[in-house]
TrEMBL record:
<feature type="region of interest" description="Disordered">
    <location>
        <begin position="929"/>
        <end position="948"/>
    </location>
</feature>
<feature type="domain" description="AAA+ ATPase">
    <location>
        <begin position="471"/>
        <end position="696"/>
    </location>
</feature>
<keyword id="KW-0694">RNA-binding</keyword>
<keyword id="KW-0963">Cytoplasm</keyword>
<dbReference type="InterPro" id="IPR047187">
    <property type="entry name" value="SF1_C_Upf1"/>
</dbReference>
<dbReference type="InterPro" id="IPR036236">
    <property type="entry name" value="Znf_C2H2_sf"/>
</dbReference>
<dbReference type="GO" id="GO:0031047">
    <property type="term" value="P:regulatory ncRNA-mediated gene silencing"/>
</dbReference>
<keyword id="KW-0347">Helicase</keyword>
<feature type="domain" description="U1-type">
    <location>
        <begin position="69"/>
        <end position="102"/>
    </location>
</feature>
<dbReference type="GO" id="GO:0003723">
    <property type="term" value="F:RNA binding"/>
</dbReference>
<dbReference type="GO" id="GO:0005524">
    <property type="term" value="F:ATP binding"/>
</dbReference>
<dbReference type="GO" id="GO:0016787">
    <property type="term" value="F:hydrolase activity"/>
</dbReference>
<dbReference type="GO" id="GO:0032574">
    <property type="term" value="F:5'-3' RNA helicase activity"/>
</dbReference>
<dbReference type="GO" id="GO:0008270">
    <property type="term" value="F:zinc ion binding"/>
</dbReference>
<dbReference type="Pfam" id="PF21634">
    <property type="entry name" value="MOV-10_beta-barrel"/>
</dbReference>
<keyword id="KW-0943">RNA-mediated gene silencing</keyword>
<comment type="similarity">
    <text>Belongs to the DNA2/NAM7 helicase family. SDE3 subfamily.</text>
</comment>
Amino acid sequence: MSRIYQTPRICNTLLNTGACNDDACTFNHTVYRCEPCNVFVATPWAYQSHVEGKKHKKTVRGHHAAPARNQIHCAPCHTNVPHYDWASHCSGLKHKAREQYVVFQAALEEGQKDKHGVVVSGEFDLGMVEPTAAQVGVVVRASIQNTTPGSKVSLISLAITSDKGTNKKSPFTVKCDHSGVLSYNTAYPFSVTLQQGFLGRAEDLLEIVFEDTQLRKRFAIVRTLSAHVGSLADHEAIGARAPYVPRKRAQRPPEAGWSLPHAPIPTNLASILGSGDTKTVSENVRSLYLPRAFDSNGYGRHFKHLLWVEEHRMENDLGLYDISGTQLSRYQAYYYLEVPGLAEKRPSVLVGDRILVQHQGAADSGRWFEGGVHVVRQKEVGLRFNGLFRSSPADLFSVRFKLNRYPLRRQHLALDSAFSEDRVLFPVAAHVPRTPIPTSRNTIVKVSNALIATNPAQLQAVMSIVKRPAGSVPFIIFGPPGTGKTVTAVEAIRQVLAASPNARVLACAPSNSAADLIASRLMELGNEVLFRFYAPSRHKEQVDLGLREFTHVTADGHFSVPPLAIMKRFRVIVTTCVSASVVSGIGIPRGHYSHIFIDEAGQATEPEAMIAIQTMADNNTNIVLSGDPKQLGPIIRSPIARELGLEISYIERLMQRDVYDEQAGYGKTVVKLTQNFRSHPSILKFPNEQFYRGELEPHGDRKVTELYANSPLLPKRGFPIIFHSLAGKDDREASSPSFFNIDEASQVRTYVEILRGDSKHGVRTGVRITDADIGVIAPYHAQCLKIRTLLRTVAEGVKVGSVEEFQGQERKVIIISTVRSSREFVSYDLRHTLGFVANPRRFNVAVTRAQSLLIVVGDPNVLGLDPLWRSFLNYVYTNGGWTGADIPWDASVEVDAGAGNAYADQARSNAVFDMNDFTRRMEELTVAAGAEGDGDDVNVDRPWREAE
């Protein structure tokens, strides 16, 4: 019996326009929309009939159809499923089979990659093979080569997958005359033989097992074997007119010397990343690609996929900087391109990068030419193209920027390593030596920095590092703001060198500025002991004169490394985390460095930190991390990568483990520094109680910290914090989604004028400071530009930047402009990136940069919706630091720290804001964007990391 469906009465306005604004309408408003066709239908079966029709298929042919409003995209099946059918779809055999296949395909793609510097070369797709030849046997020649100098890798076995525990007889056999250690850059041949007495296709997998003998860790490289046994004459006679010829994957020959894996994003993964919201895509990546257990066995695979997820977003975000309708000017061999925002590193362009240009309106307008960057100036770059490129001064071009993949490739190289020590990656109590904690009573340490001798925590950290047995778990110097974690790490390096003539140190940091700080404090060691490595892309003018004698420069003026024998003599090498791969690349053997130090470790992603560790550490290497997980972590652009954990740094992940409990592990695995040498006690008090359980002790130089304690600029003498309540209006340029607030920018300028001694405002601070003593922090790039413009004729030397740009720095005076004021964007602020308002770590860094005076300019109506900011504003108000418009709530009422959006909800329920149609539409968009993680504009103000 056929089923008869009663079609509900659907609102015609809704069907025709997609929206009905008549509150009195009583017709059914549940419809199904086909987004590609922009068609609305009334029932699920009508929708199904539509998508099976020719018109729909013609519309979406060649395009991936996005899921409709009432559909869910199934990534494994590459289809959109109606909500009502989702459970049934997921329980179906076809879906489960497809899901299993995707998981297998991910594992296969991972296995097919060359690893740990070992390259397997050869053509393993035999293509069409005549039956007579297949019956006798067809032999394929291939080779194995170790491309990493200094590594100790042995060949263990070669085997065909079908021969391992199955009853299936494989048509392929493999033979290799070599076993044991693979010498550097020597090709070891082996052969694969196909022998099959019947027609048909032959497929199998070749598994090659290796072992890093120094680490005693095994790894495998897989190759797919395939052939088609058949008559070529027959296929030509009766085959299709345009037969499909599979594209053969040519094996790249290994490069001479040090080479990096190309590590392209897997095609299936890229397809999944391009569809669905953040939550759905994150779940798909987690279930299909990430190992089920996060442990040493799947560690590399886990982070390689997170790197690919991040790279996918970085590539997309580069599109924000595409240029259209621009001209090139030629001078000698170079074509010069003006790049807006180059000085702000938006985009960041370095010597060695590649840029694509395309003629507009010319005969070859569809062709892209790739130019290499040879010159980088303040506003323009100099490019060189191949001989086919032609340009006249009147020509117009489109420009695209290519992502510099070298930092990513170096991380992939490290993750391909066989190093997987649990005591480094997943330490537990059993890995901690039972030796007693060294104390000043049983250990005599003659410190180089006399101040450390009077600081118990710093002294304990130094002694614990120096006296650790080889091969211990990583040691952490937990350094809250202004407590001297870098000073402690530098002292520990000095003491390690003094304690043993065989000690060697590789010291790294995420940024060049942080690495320079380490090197500058070690210069007394002399250039026979200390070497500072810079990437060739770094210009000499960017390097302090005092550090240049600790570097090596080639004849053409680029930074490089001296010969291997000389490099081995240096007892301390200082570099960035990304550039740390150079030491293994030039042939320095694993284990050469007894200690690996990573300063500001909280700012590096875990794969970045692993570049030094996984390429240079052996079973005896000691690792020391210094940083503060409660300050800003690494800059991650992809919301999916953040959801999957890439934003959690190595030091933060370790500190979440029981073995790094601050009390139980004190002196054995971690030391927390508690003496703050930076800020006035009133500036330190609030972040100390919020983030550090009140354990920090103010020990700053009172000549600095009390500089403004009695200034007439303060609303209350003795309390050097000002909150200037200002309900301005935030806005955006037509060309940029980044917010700015002109009123706040003007107020910031006024404060700078007063601080620099301008008497026109009628306030004399009585303090003389320079531009370099003042820092201005704003969460939006547009606001930074506006403030810089206003300060150009007032105090051009004042640094204006984001919170990220100020981490690790300090100023006598810090001014914070919070920017946002518009009421209709309140929900947006809480859900997304109102700078540090929605991020406690940003707040922590921002308010702890000031030594003598902290000024915050903002709208309390917006800031007060966030519990952390409301608590801070209450603290300032009750201590007399408030100025400007009055506080809009009762500051004596205790703030609920876990209120979340409760204060925003309360404000809405009290009708503080005009909930008009625009606000409702905005909130609907905000809710949708919140569910998806980040909107299109969210990364506009997220800084780009300086790649090398």
